[in-house]
Amino acid sequence: MGHEARKGALRDFYTPLVAAMGYKFTPDDELADFLLEQEAALEETKGAPYCPCQVRTREREHDMTIVCPCIPFHRAHFDAMRRCWCGLFVHQDVTDPDSLPQIPASELGIRE
Amino acid sequence: MAESWIKVADEGALSDGRALPVYPRGLGMLLVRAGGAVYAIANRCAHMACPLEGGACEAFIITCPCHDWRFDVRTGAFVEAPEIAVPTYPVRVTDGEVFVHL
Amino acid sequence: MSDPIFVYALSTCPWCHKAKKYFEDKGVVFEAVDIDLLPDDESDRLAAEAFELSGSRAYPVVRIGGEVIVGFLPERFDQLLEAEA
Ligand code: FES
Fold first, then answer.
1. A55 and C16: CB-CB below 8 Å?
2. What is the mean pLDDT of chain C?
3. Does domain B5-101 have CATH number 3.30.70.870?
4. Is the pTM for the entire model greater than 0.90?
5. Which of B35, B102, C74, C75 is least surrounded, with the fewest CB atoms within 10 Å of its CB?
């Protein structure tokens, strides 16, 4: 651990953004804390709070589409799952995030 | 403070493709000239609050230098998700002087 | 018996951890690599390989037999392991 202040700041930045898109932080606090910790570390070492569950290509055009919250760039996919890929955000009406499996984009006919 | 029109720049200071930072009453905003009109947009990204200053301006779109979120200077809307926006301010150009309404 | 099970993973990704734990708990032989912990060129090579197989930059990417699964999908893993057995 050790990024407590930055994790709080990221949470504050993201909360209104994802709310505007119909999402909220996962009620799974342990998962949220782990993911925010990863993001704060990625921001420190790689320059941006990248999605911890997607791989960077080091091409800016791609990598900027996986900076958290990356919902705007993967909307159809995430709306279909009712969560984002890593599960940090879920649709506002979700109370049991464990009931939402990952669904590969390809299975939804969506190009990543 | 009463709402009013505040002079922020001379029109001659503006050029297409380059945003001009101004600070009426200490509020950071950018003037952008595009499509023959002038727009004022808050100099603070909706994503993580980076200054939009220095970001590329192409037609009506300004790109945040931090993580490339793109905003339409006419409405402030984030291009990829228009329900997210940065504030914009009314602009009036009179006799070569640019005013914003606050 | 086809290719060994291979998990393309990221050390930062909880679903990758779960996928590895799944195979551990099953006691099957598998290989897993956290590609974000490798030097850039090696990491790029494996990321390109995973993308070639899956069309995905979302992780984990799991190779089981001839199949490629994107995500932590235990039911799917179960089916494929049964098919292999
Ligand atoms: S702060 Fe502007 S894109 Fe991230």
1. no
2. 94
3. no
4. yes
5. C75
